[in-house]
Structure formats: C-alpha cells, structure tokens
Design a protein that fits this description.
Elements: H1 2-16, E1 26-30, H2 34-40, H3 47-66, E2 71-78, H4 79-84, H5 87-105, E3 111-115, H6 123-135, E4 143-150, H7 152-169, H8 174-180, H9 183-188, E5 200-203, E6 222-225, H10 235-247
Parallel strand pairs: 1-2, 1-5, 2-4, 3-4, 5-6
Helix pairs in contact: 1-10, 2-3, 3-5, 5-6
C-alpha cells in the first residue's frame, strides 16, 4: 500500500513538471516487446504477449487523452512482420488486432483510422478495420491511427504513385511533372494525408530504431525510448516522455 502511495505521489510530481504549453498533439508509438514479454513468462506462444499488449492499448489511449494528446498512431504490424513471422503467430495477431479495432471503435468519442496496405491483409482483418473506421467518423475526441500492414517505404511509394496518377488525370505534361511533384503534394497522398505529423515518437522495449515507421512524417519528430516492454508500460512512463518533450528545444533540422 505504501508503495502504491509513493508511486502515485511520484506520478503526480512528474505530471506537474510537464509544460502544458509545450506538449505534443500527435504521439506515435512503436509498440514493441510483446513477444519478449511472453517469453519471459514462459508462455507457449507469442500470442500471450500480443494479447497483453492489446489489452494495454485502451488504457494507454486514456492516458494520452488525459494528457490532451489529440492523435495517437500505434505501430502494430509492419510489412516486414508479414513476411518475417511464422504463419501461426500471424493468424493469432490478425485475430487480436481485429478484436482490438472493435474494442476501440466501441468508444464513441474516439475516431479510428487504418493506415497501411490493405492488399497485404486477410479479408477478415481488413473488414474489421474498415468497420472500426465507419463506427464513429465524426467523433471529436481522440483520433487513433492503427498502423497495420504498414511500412514507411511502401507508404511513400504508394503516395508518389497516387500523386502522379492525379497529375496524369488532370492532363499534366511529363516535362512539368518534376516541378509539380512537391513534398507537399506527396504528403497529401500519404496514408496519413491531412493529419499533422507526430511531434513525438515513443518506442518501448529499449530498442532504438524506427523500423520503417513513418519515415516521411518523422522528419522533424522528437524520439523517446522506454525500457519497459509494452505490456508493462505504466502511465508514469508516458508522463516522463511528455515531460522530456516539453523541456526540449525543437530545432527542426537546424
């Protein structure tokens, strides 16, 4: 009981040290460590860790909501995962993510969007993600992006193809394409088109790499690495990341 009280006091202290005028509106998270979490607990299958991670996500989103974060992007399944994971683990993941999408859509204040390549996903998972998108399209609360079947290089390639196709449909000439194809026009065709880029990207489990995540949008993002495996993440971990962000002087490449 004393430990819980001390933890709460420390959490409140960290919260009080966050500058509310300098907090991120868009936080992206590389959800990492689920498999190691399962292995440390001698679970027979990685699915135990993936389920624990999925159960943590609604709680994490509520923490973000309380901290006045407007948009959260969760990196749940990469294009590399789709070719590098065992078939049984992927089948479990597809079911877990589909259930998660349904759970998140059940919060009428949250708006869910899938970002990723639907052609790489099974029909059932695609349908679950689309149902979640349609559930609360006009919700004004937290905007939740689920990055599933996502790869940053694939996203940029698809965006360039879409932009060039738009240019062709408007009757543009090849000689003028190079000057027309600006970073802004490519950005409009990203899977996150129309959204602000993430100011803060958090990765759990102690790893310090992007893993093909939002490589276009992360051009000016700040990064924060947490040692905790995702299922073990605590609210104070998020608060420390926000405190750290609020103390940084962002230089935007300078």
């Amino acid at each position: 009981m004393l430990g819980g009280l001390l933890y709460q006091l420390y959490q409140n202290r960290v919260r009080s040290q966050i500058d509310p005028a300098n907090t991120p509106k868009h936080v992206a998270v590389i959800v990492d460590g689920n498999r190691r979490w399962a292995k440390l607990r001698l679970a027979e299958a990685a699915a135990a860790g993936h389920r624990a991670g999925a159960q943590k996500i609604p709680e994490f989103l509520k923490w973000c909501e309380s901290a006045n974060v407007a948009t959260v992007t969760l990196y749940l399944l990469s294009t590399d995962n789709l070719t590098g994971r065992a078939s049984e683990e992927l089948q479990d993941l597809f079911l877990i993510i589909a259930e998660l999408a349904k759970t998140l859509a059940g919060n009428k204040n949250w708006r869910v969007k899938h970002v990723g390549d639907v052609s790489l996903l099974p029909v059932e998972l695609t349908a679950a993600l689309q149902d979640a998108e349609r559930a609360n399209p006009h919700a004004t609360g937290l905007h939740v992006n689920l990055a599933v079947g996502y790869g940053g290089r694939s996203e940029i390639t698809a965006a360039v193809h879409a932009a060039v196709q738009r240019y062709r449909e408007r009757g543009g000439e090849l000689d003028d394409l190079a000057s027309w194809l600006t970073p802004e026009r490519i950005g409009e065709h990203l899977w996150t088109g129309g959204q602000a880029d993430p100011e803060l990207i958090i990765r759990t489990s102690g790893e310090q790499r992007l893993s093909d995540f939002m490589i276009w949008q992360a051009a000016h993002s700040e990064f924060y690495f947490v040692e905790a495996l995702y299922p073990d993440l605590r609210e104070v971990d998020l608060l420390r990341a926000l405190r750290d962000f609020s103390r940084r002087r962002r230089r935007f490449g300078a």
